[in-house]
Amino acid sequence: MTIAILGGTGPQGQGLALRFARAGVPVVLGGRDGGRAAAIAEELMQKLPAGSAAITGLDNEGATDAAEEMVVLAVPFSAHNATLEALKSRLVGKILVDIVVPLKEGDPKKVDMPPEGSATEAAQAILGDEIPVVGALHNVSAVTLNNLDWDINCDILICGNSLPARKTVMDLVRKLDVTPYNAGDAEAARCIEAITPILIRQNISKQVPFSHAGIRIWAPDH
């Protein structure tokens, strides 16, 4: 099952491409410049072990068309709405996996939520109910994703208004050897997306003796 990652030339997109390809999922990187996306895809292939699935690169339109079922949106929030408006007709019949966090311009330790309440909800408003939007993978460090020697050190919270779409995305995320949790409908993205700037604050704090932190859901010990 081929997936597309739009904004795949950025750090988060590249890291996800590496992880999914190593797990056997073919990936098409999408970018505004298809030639640059193809060049980055070739570079990423050099980092993968033998037996990995292919990473290729196209422009955003071509990558969206190449996706069989799921398209991951990993663009900066400044390009979030315009990208979806441009690709809306090509997303019909597919699931959009929105990993975008609306970080405040000039201060990534805060969010600046859109009027809809979250990036996930904004995407659903733009695409309409016929195209399911699932929020996922908001709180994973790009540095961690790009270092294939490291395990992904967090659980993944999944939200969206379509339960079948949520379950489909949870199955995809499990391929990364992480645990996904069903966090409910799209409104939950207001909380999930807001976790990211809190993690950023901890990761850059001189008072915290580590970086690239994630979150986990812990079972009680009794």
UniProtKB/TrEMBL annotation:
Q: Which organism is it from?
A: Thalassovita autumnalis
Q: What protein name is recorded for this chain? A: NADPH-dependent F420 reductase
Q: Which GO terms describe its molecular function?
A: coenzyme F420 binding; cupric reductase (NADH) activity; ferric-chelate reductase (NADPH) activity; NADP binding; oxidoreductase activity, acting on NAD(P)H
Domain Pyrroline-5-carboxylate reductase catalytic N-terminal: where? 2-102
Highest taxon in the source lineage: Bacteria
Pfam families xref list: F420_oxidored (PF03807)
Q: Which GO terms describe its cellular component?
A: plasma membrane
A GO biological-process term: copper ion import
PANTHER family on file: DUDULIN-RELATED, F420-DEPENDENT NADP REDUCTASE
Q: Which InterPro entries has this protein been placed in? A: NAD(P)-bd_dom_sf (IPR036291), NpdG (IPR010185), P5C_Rdtase_cat_N (IPR028939), STEAP_metalloreductase (IPR051267)
Print the keywords alphabetically: Oxidoreductase
